[in-house]
Design goal:
The structure is a homotetramer of 199-residue chains.
Chain A (H helix, E strand, L loop, with lengths): L9 H17 L13 H7 L1 H27 L5 H16 L1 H10 L6 H28 L11 H23 L1 H16 L8
């Protein structure tokens, strides 16, 4: 290792893919399995917030994975510091099932739903900020492939994320349903061809 | 990535394998662990729907993984849109432990079992449809290896899936046990040598 | 894939490693987390069967993974049928957290512990049998590297597994503690240098 | 395999990355999801030990993964014995969610928190010891790349771990909060550029 601190991104990508894959699959545990004596039809109707939260979070983590994947078609080297920044990036990703469960639990409770969506939004903002931290570090430290030097457009794409998620989070103070609709709309928008930041 | 939007499928396969591996392994959490004061012999007998649901779902996800694996021996390039279609494909895969738990919980309850098997069947139909969406997009966009252009036989193989699962799902309205037997039979049939669609 | 049914084992190994890694890590969920009002010291003492079951199962799945890993240094091709046999092999592996939880729950209950250890042993026998099925199919179908044709010693190594685990399982009828001790001893023995079957 | 027992580390790294990724992502399950009738604001405030435990454990497992990753840029061969040592190394890693849940549950309980932090510390000591066992075996058996023979500095780095964690664990007897602060400080220190042992 000596003085050469830079390495390839193979195991970084494998570990990151693992955390993404587990976080996205653990989401299903946020949907409560009813007891046999409960009426299943009623449960499925009453549980709609859990299905909505599951779908929005699944697509959101999916978009984040594709975005991370995109970023790492351009980032080809890594440093120890970058590995740790990636760990800090993964912290709110792996945390995502918790705010998802809060939204599923409280969306029908007038007293708790604003706070639940605020926690959900704050987690999304943290992830969006960490995307910028990762990208900024990789650009400045020269971890990119030569022909893919950062341009204004790409960087603007990533810096849009925190703004949009912060706006959605603040909207939760007025109306948590509007906030959720914003989160869903942003995710679907980014899934449209050619709309993902960093491309 | 500038104008070049197509990339190799390495990380796509790794992420997909991860979601499949986690979903198939999380199935075991749908089998309730009894309390020490319960009679274990009685519990094991009463829990037979959980063991049946576990086995059918495990083999079904296994067949789906092999099928996805097969498909990606022919699909060798990817686009951002294809990555998102694959995310939409993984959504019902990762959701599978939930309907499995519903079947395990309600199969002995006359009032809930039809609905439980309907949810189970609908999830299977969604997966079968997404197989066709993935395959159709990859064929039309030219993501296949040159010598493996789609032929009628292969495409017919994939389009059979939604029909079979829809038939099984509709059978649940008449008799949920017959529906489960159809799901199990289809899975076992596809495990026989040379029977898997897309080969 | 047309007439060529044989392929390399890359994604098979990746998927299998995923299931092993998840099953071995889910074991920790079989250890109940106490409530704050419980006395932690007493809980830790009373929970010793859970710690024992966790350790034995962790090492057992570890040995199985190393054994699978060993086998696949010699198996270098795969067929669709072999992929499905591997899925059948993974079924009892992924199921392992359930019998582990049964042993943890019932080892101190005179009425249930024999049955709990029997289920645990039967799962181990199933895995040991599937090792032989995998190895037998790979040998007969010529999926091995040329210089590693099966020899009697290797095959005898694998066929020892079911016998040993069956003996341990039958011992549970007399005394479940003796049975667990046999399972632990076999696992530790196979971890000693040069003792693993298939090497 | 015959007489040649040494092999490359590809699947070892993949399996290890899998266990690390699952253990770090399962941590989120240690944060209890409140019931709808509970006041969410109060729950979030009362749950602060769960958030603190989650963050410290997440970063700790992250540092351990980076450290393992570092070690395996130098370790390029493996033996069966080394695979088993790595399994023993992974045992306390995969166990980590349990002591994390104990700390989250008992940190506000004067009667149980010392013991909870002791279990947490003991698990950390076990991991730190296993790092030395892995490194010592790999050095002595010549599994390293030629130009990276162990030097005193590197070895001293790894042997510092058990001492530091043991000191933190013993501090828990006096004050569990001080012990947690030590664990957090050590982890953050190792995340600073150029501070990780083994580099």
């Amino acid at each position: 290792m000596g003085g050469v601190e830079e390495r390839t991104t193979g195991r970084l990508a494998a570990f990151t893919d693992g955390v993404f894959a587990i976080a996205i699959t653990l989401l299903v545990l946020t949907i409560r399995i009813p007891e046999p004596q409960e009426d299943l039809g009623q449960v499925l109707v009453r549980q709609w917030p859990a299905f909505v939260a599951y779908t929005i979070s699944f697509l959101a983590i999916g978009v984040m994975w594709v975005s991370h994947h995109q970023m790492f078609t351009v980032i080809v080297r890594t440093t120890t510091t970058f590995l740790f920044l990636n760990i800090l990036f993964l912290l709110p990703i792996a945390f995502f099932p918790y705010p998802t469960a809060l939204v599923a639990t409280y969306l029908l409770e007038p007293s708790g739903r604003t706070l639940a969506v605020l926690v959900y939004g704050a987690t999304s903002v943290a992830i969006a900020v960490m995307f910028n931290v990762l990208w900024g570090y990789a650009s400045r430290r020269g971890l990119l492939i030569p022909r893919a030097r950062p341009n204004g457009l790409r960087t603007r794409g990533f810096s849009l994320g925190p703004v949009v998620y912060l706006a959605g989070t603040l909207a939760a103070i007025v109306n948590p349903f509007v906030a959720l609709a914003i989160f869903a709309a942003v995710t679907v928008y980014w899934m449209l061809p050619g709309r993902l930041p960093g491309r």
